[in-house]
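User: Last request for today: this protein with 5-O-phosphono-beta-D-ribofuranosylamine, please.
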Amino acid sequence: MPNIAIFASGTGTNAGKIIDYFKENANIHVVLVVSNKATAPVLELADESGIEKMVISRQSFYETEGLLDALRDRGVGLIVLAGFLWLIPDYLVRAYDKRMVNIHPALLPKYGGKGMYGMNVHRAVKAAGETVSGITIHYVNERYDEGGVIFQATCPIAPDDEPEDIARKVQQLEHRHFAPVVEQLAQELEEG
Ligand code: GRF
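Assistant: Here's the final one, the structure of the complex with 5-O-phosphono-beta-D-ribofuranosylamine:
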């Protein structure tokens, strides 16, 4: 089974769910948490679970391929982006083609692209008067939020829902579905 690396820039509630989920799994291991922010709370989650963590700089990420060696050394076969905001450079996209996934807090192809993250997404969904939102789990390519869709789940939006309410509903979907979808992908990769 492929080892998993999680890339996250922020709080890491999704990363935490995934870490916990795979603690129960004898075959699939989260072996590394990568962050571009030394102060990101997600790194504390890694510590608490005894998972190796790595903080990367913009320069090392975009101008060297050192991270690739680190991933290969640890047998990483699947990369999970869980709130990682930097665009993924070509060398990493190529090396992990169909083996790198992201979760987006809306129903792509709507409400994606640069700047569409966090509450910006939910505010835009509300402003457009949508009656449904949801999550998209998709492969990662060299453009923000444009890789092939793997899985979507939806939630209704009530007329008086504020962006914060939409955020809460969407987060529930993320926490419910992300880890099982990653597990499914890992199994598919193993089966070739
Ligand atoms: C999630 O909403 C995810 O969809 C997006 O970034 C957010 C990460 O949240 N890509 P958290 O750090 O996992 O709480």
